[in-house]
Amino acid sequence: MTDATSGSWTTDGPSTATPGAVTLTDLLRVPMHRFRLVGAAALVGLLAALGYVLLVPAALTANAVVAVRPVVTDAFTPSGAGADRAVNMNVESGIATGTEVVRRLADAAGGHPRDIRGALEVEVPTGGQILRFSYQAGEAQRAVQGANLAAQTYLDVRRTMYEQQRAEMLRSYDVSITKVAAQQAALQKRASTTKDPAAGNAVVAELAGINNQLTQLNSARTEIAAVDVNPGWVTQTAEKSLVASAGHRPLYLVAGLLGGALIGIVLAYAWESADRRVRSVADGRDATGLPLLGTVRRPAFRGSPRAVDADVRYVAMAVAERVRPPARVALVSAREDASALTAGLAVALAADGRDVFVADDSGRTELLRATVLADRGRLPIDPSRPLVPKPRPAGSPPPAGEAATPRRPSPHPPGARPSTDADATLTLPRVSSARPENGRVVDPDEVSVGVGSVRFGTWRQGADHGLVLFNAPPAESDERGVAVARQGSAVVVVERDRTRQSDLRRLVERLRAAGVTPLGFVLTRNGRA
After folding, report:
1. What is the DSSP string of 32-93?
2. How far is Cα 254 from Cα 49, in angstroms, rounded to an integer?
3. CA 131 to CA 233: how far, in whole Å?
4. Alpha-carbon span 303 to 308, nearest angstrom
5. Residue 124 in contact with residue 39, Cβ under 8 Å?
6. Quick check: pTM over 0.85?
7. What is the H or E stretch that residue 370 is in?
8. By CB distance 3.0 to 4.6 Å, which of 40, 70, 117, 182 could disulfide with 86?
C-alpha cells in the first residue's frame, strides 16, 4: 500500500487568485489553438470569393460627364461671386436619378427600372457643377450606350422642364399684355369721343400710363422668350476604350480570405466557450484543486529531447518525495494515453537505483518497453554502461562483484597436442548465467536502467514489488485506474490543449468519491511534451 507522506503542498490550489491583465497573447491564444477551424473558415471564404470571381461575369463601367449651366437671361453678362451656387447640384443629382430619367432609360434599353436604377450611379464632385454618370453592364457596348443615354436623357428632361417654365411665363405675360391692350383701346375710344377739354386731358394722361405699362410687358416678354434654356452639355462621352472593370476583382479574394478568417475566429471563441480545454497550469489548478507536480514541455527541436527528459526527471523527484515503498502509484487521465509519461517516470525512478515495476492491463506492455529502451539511451549518465577495467597488481583481491573461485586448469598442458583417439574425452566449456556488466543477474523480462531496473507485467504480477507504476487506461471508459488508486495513490495526468476541464473535474470528483487523495497533477503536451 502507498504511504503518502504529508508534504508541504496543500491539496487546494490558488483558485481565487487575483486575475491579471488580459494581453494580446491571451486574445490570440484561442485562435491559435483552434487554428484548424480558423483555417477551414478562411479557406471556405476564399473558395466562395473565388467562385464568385469565376462564375459571376465581370461588370463593366462606362462614364459620361455633363457640365451643368444655370439658365440666365443674358448669357454674356459676367458672373458674380456666387456663380458656383447658382445651380443646386443636389437637386440636379436627384433629377438625374429620378423616375423620369430611369423610365426613359428602361424604355430605350428594354430593361426593368429596378435594374436600371441599380446600374446607374451619378456622382457630384465637391464645389463643381459637374455630373458624372456611371453605368454598369455585362458588355462594354451596353455600358457605353447606357452612360451616354443617361447623360442625354438628363439634359432632355431638364430642358423640357425649363421650356415648360418659359412657356408658362410667356403665357402669363401674354394674358397681361392682352388685358393692358384692351384697356388701351378703351381709353383711345374715350379720348376720341370726349368733348370736354379737362376730361380729355385726364384720358390722355391715363392713356400714357397704359402705353408705358404695355411697353414694359412687351420688353419683359421679349427677354423671357430670348432666354437660353439649355441645361448644359455633355463634355465627355463614354467610349469603349475608356470602359473599365467595376471594382478590383482580386480584392474579392482578399476580402473573402479575411472575412472567412474573421468568421473562423468568432467560431473559435464560441467553440472554446462551449468546449473548454486546459490551456495552462492555472486552468489545471482551477479544475482539479491539486498541487502541480511538474510540467513536461514540448522540445524546441524534435531532434533534441533533453528538455523533456529533464522535465520528467523533475516530476519523478516530486513523486518520489511523496511516496514511500511499498508504493502503488496509478497514473490516471480522463481520455488521454499516459503511456509515454509512465515510461519516462519509470526510467527516471530506476536511474536512481530503484526497482520499478510497470503494470499495464490494456495491452500496451510492448509500447512501454520500447519507450523505456528509447528513454534509457538518452540518460545524461548511464551507470549501466561498463567502464574499461584498470589492470590490477599481482596478489590484489578480486572485486566484490566477481566470484572468488580459482581458475580451472586447461585439460591440455602447454605444448601438448590434442589426442587423435576417437574415444578420447572432450571437455566442453561451462555455460554461465546471463549477467550484466555490474554483476547482477538480469531477468529476461527486466530492463536495466542505471543502477536500478524496470520490469513489466500486469497489475497482479507486481504485487510483490516495492514500487509499482500502473499505466491506467482512460478513466472515462475504464474504471481500473481509480480502483488501483484506492490501493495506493494517484497522479493525475493532464494533457495541455486536449484535456477538457469538465472531464478533468469529473475525474477528480470520482477519485475523491472513491477515497483517493491524488498526489497532484502533471501538465503534459501531446501525451509526451
Report:
1. HHTHHHHHHHHHHHHHHHHHHHHHSPPPEEEEEEEEE----S-TTSPP-TTGGGSS-HHHHH
2. 8
3. 10
4. 11
5. no
6. no
7. helix 365-376
8. 70
278, 499 contact by CB (below 8 A): yes
pLDDT digits (tens, 9 = 90+) for 388-441: 444 455 555 554 444 444 444 444 444 445 555 555 554 444 443 444 444 444
Task: Determine contact, residues 489/391, Cβ cutoff 8 Å.
Answer: no
CA distances from 410 to 414, 418, 425, 426, 433 (A): 9, 12, 13, 12, 21
Extract the C-alpha cell encoding 350.
Answer: 530506476
Biggest alpha carbon–alpha carbon distance for the chain: 196
Alpha-carbon dihedral angle through residues 157, 162, 166, 172, given to the nearest 10 degrees: 80
DSSP 248: -
Q: For residue range 10-66, list pLDDT tens digits in order.
A: 344 444 444 556 677 767 777 887 888 899 999 999 899 888 888 877 778 888 999
Q: Reduced to 3 states, what is the DSSP secondary structure of residue 378?
A: coil
Helix axis angle, 501-513 to 281-288, nearest 10°: 40
* pLDDT one-digit tens code per residue, 442-499: 455 688 887 788 888 888 887 788 888 898 889 888 888 888 888 888 999 998 888 8
Spatial CA neighbour of 100 closest among 61, 155, 59: 155
Cα–Cα dist 523/512, whole Å:
20
Could you tell me which residues come within 8 angstroms of residue 409 by beta carbon, excluding any fewer than 6 positions away?
none
**Residue, of 179 and 306, whose pLDDT is higher:** 179
Closest CA to 498 of 524, 480, 467: 524
Give the cell for residue 127. 464645389
Q: Where are the alpha helices (DSSP H) in 56-196?
A: 89-96, 99-109, 113-119, 140-193
Describe the strand order of the beta sheet including 489-496 as a list of residue ranges: 292-295, 520-525, 489-496, 327-332, 467-471, 355-359, 452-457, 446-449
What tens digit of pLDDT does each residue of 271-326 get? Answer: 878 778 888 888 888 888 899 998 888 766 554 444 577 888 888 888 888 888 88
Rounded to whole angstroms, the Cα distance separating 450 from 325 reads 19
